[in-house]
Design brief:
InterPro entries: IolE/XylAMocC-like, Xyl_isomerase-like_sf, Xyl_isomerase-like_TIM-brl. By secondary structure, the chain is α/β, with parallel strands linked by helices. Helix content is 41%, strand content 15%.
């Protein structure tokens, strides 16, 4: 998910032709573990939620990452998705504001059958804010663990590039303070590569691999989206500079979630391209 932060970008002037998925090895992405972040499809979901979800199921998706319930209760949405053979295995949800909010959040997650819940975005230049948020993440993660649900954090670029008032970065605080036994990472590959570019790394994909290996917390989910080299904008899979085969060969995850904050052509085209790319890639 993108909230307009990180490297200033604008939509690519023309949709580049997606390159074929590389076939550099024999391993492949398990299609049962491929999902899509519904934020990618927000504009068309607003027009006809049920038709779009039916189309996703037709493409092959059996998992989605939720971003809202689109006017239904959690129970109603679960019933609709069950009818399609689709499960909202993951969700982006902000930190709860109070105990009652946490109870509602837990109840909805259980009703929808989430296996993962991730904090989608936090931003501050205060180290104390990040310490407080890390402690809140730990507390919520404990509550979700008691329901059998994993709790994680989803990154953008600023967690790596912003220097806080004590000289650390947000990523330093999160990875040093969040309990690895309770908290996992949902790594957005576009944004980590973008951070590498912003930091002047000669090998942004290598930087991404270093981020994965250095974190005490396990990277259990990927947001798989490409990066246009010219604009830095998000891209459909195969249209940009990210060497997914290299990343996947180094570290596999439990969910591979297609996303593009600003689809190159249409949201459903992004879904089709993403499914085909992850079906074909070998590493």
């Amino acid at each position: 998910m993108c909230y307009g932060f990180g490297e200033p970008t604008q939509a690519a002037p023309a949709a580049p032709q997606a390159a074929p998925a590389p076939r550099s090895g024999e391993r492949q992405v398990p299609l049962d573990d491929v999902s899509i972040q519904l934020y990618t499809l927000r504009t068309v979901l607003e027009d006809d939620h049920d038709a779009v979800m039916t189309a996703l199921a037709g493409i092959g998706y059996r998992k989605v990452e939720a971003a809202g319930t689109w006017g239904r209760t959690a129970q109603e949405l679960r019933g609709f998705l069950d009818g399609l053979g689709v499960r909202a295995t993951s969700a982006h949800l902000p930190l709860a504001e109070d105990a009652a909010g946490l109870e509602r959040k837990l109840a909805d997650a259980v009703a929808l059958g989430h296996a993962y819940v991730n904090v989608p975005f936090l931003r501050s230049e205060s180290s104390e804010d990040w310490k407080r948020w890390a402690d809140e993440i730990n507390a919520e993660a404990q509550a979700f663990a008691e329901q059998g649900i994993r709790f994680g954090y989803h990154n953008h670029a600023h967690e790596y590039t912003v220097q806080l008032d004590d000289g650390t970065t947000p990523w330093d605080v999160l990875t040093s303070r969040c309990d690895p036994a309770l908290v996992h990472l949902e790594l957005d590959l576009h944004w980590v590569v973008t951070a590498g570019v912003q930091l002047g790394e000669s090998d942004p994909v290598g930087y991404t691999l270093d981020v994965i290996s250095a974190a005490p917390q396990r990277v259990r989910q990927y947001h798989v989206k490409d990066r246009h080299a010219d604009t830095g904008d998000t891209g459909d899979l195969g249209s940009g500079m990210v060497d997914f085969a290299r990343i996947f060969a180094a570290h596999q995850v439990e969910e591979w979630i297609v996303e593009n904050d600003r689809p190159d052509v249409t949201p459903l085209r992004t879904a089709e391209v993403g499914w085909a790319y992850l079906s074909d890639i070998r590493f």
